[in-house]
Every structure is written in structure tokens, then in C-alpha cells.
Amino acid sequence: MYTKKKRVFAHVLPLANIRVSEYIVLVRNPEHCCQGSSLLQTGHSAKRPQLWMCRKGWTPLIFANLSYSSKDQVTIHFINRDGERLTTTAKEGESLLEVVVNHNLAIDGFGACEGTLACSTCHLIFDKDAFQKLDAISDEELDMLDLAYGLTDTSRLGCQVCVKKWMDGLTVRVPMDVSDMRKQLEVGKQSKQ
Amino acid sequence: QDSRCGLTGAGYRGILCSLPGEKKEFLQNGPDLQDFVSGDLSDKSRWAEYKGNLKREKGERLHLPPWLKTKIPMGKNYNKLKNTLRSLNLHTVCEEARCPNIGECWGGGEYATATATIMLMGDTCTRGCRFCSVKTARSPPPLDPQEPHNTARAVAQWGLDYVVLTSVDRDDLPDGGAEHFAKTVLHLKERNPKILVECLTPDFRGDLKAVEKVALSGLDVYAHNVETVPALQRKVRDPRANFEQSIRVLKHAKEVQPGVISKTSLMLGLGETDEQIYATMKLLREADVDCLTLGQYMQPTKRHLKVEEYITPEKFKYWEKVGNDLGFHYTASGPLVRSSYKAGEFFLKNLVEKRKTKAI
């Protein structure tokens, strides 16, 4: 079905308060497509791509899948307690706890206090370089982190670490529980026998 | 014909035909609409035939077995209770922790005796245990000074014979909320001296003076849950809680108030072994705990621990026998049994029976 839609240039978008689906956004060059879609993160996504002929020099923004934009999706790897690697993409600004819960990662008993710094179940272990780049730790977080089992020098609480662009490809480890450690020791003993 | 959903009759049949052979057989031999409608699937006698997996394998999530399915709560009694609670700004652990028995207890059962476990000191806890879905915060809102009075009023309104009071952990208060607790019991007893009061308390971070305050407030049953076997305490509960601390609380309550009855509860299905359960029950009996309740752990939300095993009703009956043999006054054991489930009925039934035997 043909609907006549108004055309808008991408650079005016941040200033205008518009409903995305009513417009075709024109961008200067294809690289701006991703940028354009990040401006349009209002949750609308046109399901069918729309290609319109337009003036030379301006390329129409192809509304393929607006909610996906490669620029602000950050890939994070979680190594679960049993060694399994769980990979997901997260938005910038989400806390690592939110990533685990919202993406339904199979890490159970994670985030019992819903990120209010009243438990240590979202305890994660980072590698040295990543750990140093994280924001400073608060006193409240330190208090709770002290109670965590298997504390290391590069431990943080996942609810206090927010996803940033530099974390693309980051790997974090979920520390083992005391009961997992015991199981490992038992299995070790049995195999020796 | 139905162009909106894009599937014509032929197209739909086509989807069914493309199922693999085993699935087709399963669909043909499995339950059909008549089974669901007739109510047979919830029939107790068919529980033994349940073939689903009861022990969790890696990466799996267990399905709920039929003996744990409960009805959706509704009805006059249920709504009446709910409205009374809201109007007096009271909270119940029944709602906050998503208890599966809420329909049954609040509805009143066949004898129309409704029970509710009132949760004092608000609905927000300062600890985050991995089995509990009560809200958590670092600094919850301050205590409501009217709460002891309102609770007594509500309980008087309901005309209950047995009431269970519980609370959240309040590590932000200097006495952990013990004074507030004790005041509530006093008010209750003032209004109705004959009422039986059970208090399910936190561990007050091991502060025995706080335990004393509550134990001497005039209650009849002092309850504190150890939740799980010592080997799993670190995994299941908040790190600020532990087995020794909880046992000390129960022992101390009995020391300062010898006439009080002590009670505790265990959740099964978190990965403990039978030997561990038996050893824990022995430890509890040695600490002179009088009553024990055993129930099935059920995962409240996806942020909490997964269920490792669903224990069968027969196994629960076995543990009940073990508990009675070990010498507990009573052992309430069943998949849906919780610390205060039918607490009044069990207690009173036992009391009455014991009095009868003494009379003889």
C-alpha cells in the first residue's frame, strides 16, 4: 500500500519531536544510516524496508530493523559457574545485572536484591585490564562485596557496573559457589580413588 | 479462508503433518481436552504416575509436578482479608513472598478459619537471600509507630484464635526491630489474652538481648527458620545469616523463657542429600527445638535459585515419620507446607491431644 510520507533530513531529527513511522529520513551517506537509527530509538521499528527515490546526493534511510544498531550494541561474554560461555549483546548504560536478567541468561540466584546493594549475589570477576577501567567503587558496594564468597582482587558487583562502549567483547566470570567448590573437590577425590 | 492470520485450513493441516513421527504419536497418546476438563489430571491418585523429571540436570529447568499445582485465589474471605490489610497499611508475607497457599489459607478452608501471617516492619528487607522474593533495599522506609496498634486491631477484627507474626530483616535498626515486635505481641495479648501468638523472627544478627526481648513479650511459640542444611547455608541464605547463629537464637529463646515452644523450618529441593537432612534434623532436636516444618522450595522469580529437585509427597511423609521418631512435638511435612501453614491447627491439635493423654 502506498502512503505518501513526508521526508525529513537526519540532522534535524534531534531537534524535532516526531513520530518515526510517519517520516522517511534522508541521510547524507549510508554510514549515517546507523547514526540516524540511533537517533530514532523511540522503540518504533518499521518492519518492512522502505526505499524511496529521492534527490541525488541524499540517500534514504532504510528502515530495516530500527531497534538494532551496530554502534550501541555491546557484546559481553559471561563464563558461568560450570564453565559454560554465555554471550549476549547489551545496550550502553545497562548494568550487568540488568543484562543477565533481561536477556534471561542461565545464571541462577543472580541479583536477589534487585540491585539495591543489599546482597552479593551479582558478584562478577573481571580480568585485570578491564577491572582497572571500571568506575570507582563506592563504600556501600565495598561493604556488600566483602561478604561475597570467592572474593578476588578484580571482583565487582554486577549491579554497579554499567555497560560502556569499550566493553565490547568483554569477558566476565561468575564465581563458583561454596557448594560448587565442594562438588569439585568430591569429584576430584572420587577420580583419584 | 481466514486470510488475516494467513493460515487456511489446508495450510494448518500442513503444519501438523510436518511434525516428526514421535511428536505425532505423543500428541495422539497424550492427554486430550476431556482429561483436562474432567479434573482427572489433578486427581491425587494419579500423582504416582507422574513421569516428568524430578531431579534437575545441567541446563534444564524442571516442570512443576501435579502435586504442587494450586488454585487461583479468589472468593469473599480472600477479598475481605485483603481489604482489611490494605486499609490498615499492613503487609503479609503471604503476598510479599508469593506463597502458593494464599488462596487456601485466606479463603478459610472447609472450617472457614482464615489464617494470615502478618509481616511487621514493612515489606522491604535489608538482606537479599536467594530463595526469597520479598523486596530488598539498603535503607528501607522507617518503622510505622502505629503498626503494633493496627495489627492488634486487625487481628481482633478477624477474631482469630491463632496468629503468626513475622517480619523482614531490619539490619539498619540498632535492635533489629525487637522492640517493635515485642510491643505488637503485648498489644495483641492485651486485647485478647486467650489468643495464641507465634512469632517467626529474624536472627537479629545474633544479638541475644533482642531475642530475649521478643521471647519475654508473652508469646506462645518462638519460631526462627534455619531454611536449609548447614552445607548449603552460604549458597541459599544471605552471607550475614548462618546455621550456628540461627541455632543460638532458638536455644536462647528457650533459656530465657523455658515455657515457650520453639519451632523451625527447612526447605527441601535445593540440592541437599538425605544424609544432610537427617543430620540437620538431629542437630535441631539436640538444640531442643520442639516443632519442625518441611516444605518444597519453589523458585519465586527468575532471579532466584532454580529448583534442584522436586521431592515426592511420599518422601515428605517419610520425613514426617523420621521427625516424629526423633522426638519432635510435631513435624509438619508436605510439598506445600510452609512455616505457618495451618500452624494454628497443628499446634492446637497437638496441644489438645497431649492434654487428653495427660488426663488419662
Description of the molecule:
The complex is a heterodimer of chains A (193) and B (360). Chain A is built from 5 helices and 8 strands; from the N terminus they run E-E-H-E-E-E-H-E-H-H-E-E-H. Chain A has a 3-stranded mixed sheet with strand order 1-2-3, covered by helices on one side. By secondary structure, chain A is of the alpha/beta class. Chain A is elongated. In chain A, 22% of the residues lie in helices and 18% in strands. Chain B has 360 residues and is an alpha/beta fold. Helices cover 39% and strands 12% of the residues of chain B. Chain B has helices at 9-17, 21-29, 33-38, 76-87, 93-96, 102-107, 147-158, 178-191, 208-215, 233-236, 243-256, 274-286, 313-326, 343-359; strands spanning 91-92, 117-120, 124-125, 135-136, 162-167, 196-200, 221-223, 261-268, 291-296, 330-333. Chain B has an 8-stranded mixed sheet with strand order 1-2-5-6-7-8-9-10, with helices on both faces. In chain B, helix 7 runs parallel beside helix 8 (178-191). The radius of gyration of chain B is 23 Å and the shape is globular. Mean pLDDT of chain B is 84; it is low at 5-12. At the A-B interface, helix 5 of A face strand 4 of B. Chain B: Pathway: Protein modification; protein lipoylation via endogenous pathway; protein N(6)-(lipoyl)lysine from octanoyl-[acyl-carrier-protein]: step 2/2. Chain B: GO terms for molecular function: 4 iron, 4 sulfur cluster binding; lipoate synthase activity; metal ion binding.
Largest inter-chain contact set: A-B, 26 and 26 residues
The helix/strand series of chain B, from N terminus to C terminus, equals: HHHHEHHEEEHEHEHEHHEHEHEH
How much β-strand is present in the residues of chain B? 5-15%
Number of strands of chain A: 8
Largest sheet of chain A: 3 strands, mixed
Q: Which runs of chain A of at least 5 residues are low in confidence (pLDDT < 50)?
A: 15-20, 30-56, 62-69
| Oligomer status | heterodimer
Distance between the termini of chain A: 74 Å
Give the low-pLDDT segments of chain B.
5-12
The side-by-side strand order for the widest beta sheet of chain A comes to 1-2-3
Alpha-beta content class of chain B: alpha/beta
- The best one-word shape of chain A is elongated
Mean of the pLDDT scores of chain B? 84
Alpha-carbon Rg of chain B, integer: 23 Å
Count of extended strands of chain B: 10
